[in-house]
Design goal:
heterodimer, A: Rossmann fold, 5-stranded parallel beta sheet, B: alpha+beta, Ubiquitin-like (UB roll), Alpha-Beta Plaits, 5-stranded mixed beta sheet, 3-stranded antiparallel beta sheet, 6 helices, 16% strand
């Protein structure tokens, strides 16, 4: 049997969900026999490939790079999973939305100019440092999401449950306390 | 007191004529999800989570404020009710800033628990991301309006158990908010007795003991019920 082509991506989040994925520990070895990791911050692949079976998306859509990326991922992926609270609810990255429009500018001003102890100035490197969006969004506000795995981060056993369901051909279905936000 | 006979989810039960549908259901071992309801305090039907279907009545009725009647046929578990409950919870989550990951009540929050029990895996509505303040002016307690659902439990315990009348609701619709006295910082309130009943009553992380951090805010709700039982029935049941 061909191994399932799986990707994981890291948008606007803290990487905690990926850490939780690594918390699968020895299960990762079993998983490695059944999936092929084709794109991930955990491996060195530069371009998101075509024909991905399953993608776990960590993080909210915060900047233009995230926005381009998520459209590309959706177009090239069969099953998209919002992985963790930032992807599902926009969570902590979206706290800046409370500051209203133009918050992208004001948070940078606060962090890089007012808070700077030396060399204050807004980071500007067109083509390298992506511009912040005015509004941080959960993934499903931008593209269609097939399944949701909430949690900050989702505990490893929830990730394992979802992976097992997918690998056995069943519809991923978490329930009850497995769906807890936070 | 006369008894009424009625059916809930096909189960025939008898209930005291003064009982609400919620009380009758609880006696019969049928759980109806609630949020603004708090044992020991009168009900107001604010949250709409306990809506039930009653045969012959086209609109949905809140179980907490509707009295039982003879021959009532009540359903608590139809597809429509389950759909509406989930919708209500999602709207509550979208209305203010419920960032569970960084909330004092994470893991002890009734909104959070109801959401996962009703299968809310994401919120289908656009989050509002309103700008709300945190009132930290009180010596002992804090109020984070970002987490408030306007269930008014705090207002009810303040007026009707403590009798202080510090907490109130001001404004309308999505702009409604809990205020202290004449809409002033809580710490400057003349009427607050610092009893902490509002904090005990709050279902979310909106009211908290100062100094509690992420996930630390646990509450002792039994104390409120204890006080009411002691006062009304003269029974000191711990």
């Amino acid at each position: 049997m061909d191994r399932l082509r799986v990707s994981t991506v890291w948008l606007g989040g803290c990487a905690g969900c990926h850490m939780s994925f690594l918390d699968l520990d020895e299960v990762l070895i079993e998983l490695a026999a059944r999936i092929e990791l084709v794109y991930s911050p955990l491996i060195d692949v530069k371009e998101y490939p075509e024909n991905v079976d399953l993608c776990l998306v960590e993080g909210a859509v915060c900047n233009e790079d995230n926005l381009d990326m998520i459209h590309k991922i959706r177009a090239r992926t069969k099953v998209l999973v919002s992985f963790g609270d930032c992807a599902v609810t926009a969570n902590v990255p979206a706290i800046r939305n409370q500051l209203g429009l133009k918050n992208g500018e004001s948070v940078l001003q606060r962090a890089y100019v007012e808070g700077a102890q030396a060399m204050g100035g807004l980071p500007q490197e067109p083509g390298i440092v992506p511009a912040l969006l005015d509004r941080v969004m959960p993934v499903h506000e931008v593209v269609y999401v097939d399944y949701f795995v909430p949690g900050c981060p989702p505990p490893a056993d929830h990730i394992q449950a979802v992976m097992n369901q997918v690998l056995s051909g069943a519809e991923p279905r978490l329930q009850g306390a497995q769906l807890k936000f936070g | 007191m006369a008894a009424k006979t009625l059916t809930i989810d096909g189960k025939q039960i008898s209930a005291d004529e003064c009982a609400t549908i919620l009380e009758a259901a609880a006696d019969a071992g049928i759980t109806i999800p609630t949020l603004c309801h708090l044992e020991g305090v009168y009900d107001v039907g604010a949250c709409r989570l306990c809506l039930v279907e009653v045969t012959g009545i086209s609109k949905l009725l809140p179980a907490c404020t509707t009295k039982v009647a003879e021959g009532m046929e009540i359903r608590t578990d139809t597809e429509r009710l389950i759909r509406y409950r989930r919708m209500t919870l999602e709207l509550l989550l979208a209305e203010r800033n419920h960032v569970c990951a960084v909330c004092v009540a994470n893991g002890h929050c009734e909104l959070q628990t109801l959401a996962f029990n009703q299968g809310v895996d994401h919120v289908r509505y656009e989050y509002c991301f309103p700008k709300w303040e945190v009132d930290n002016s009180h010596a002992l307690f804090g109020m984070d309006h970002n987490r408030c659902l306007l269930c008014t439990r705090c207002v009810r315990v303040c007026w009707h158990i403590e009798g202080a009348g510090t907490k109130n609701v001001s404004g309308r619709g999505a702009k409604a908010r809990i205020i202290s006295d004449l809409n002033q910082p809580w710490g400057t309130s003349d009427t607050c007795t610092k009893c902490g009943k509002c904090v005990m009553a709050c279902p979310t992380g909106a009211l908290f003991y100062k100094g509690s951090t992420n996930s630390e805010m646990e509450r002792d709700r039994d104390k409120l019920e204890f006080i009411v039982t002691a006062r009304e029935k003269k029974q000191w049941i711990a």
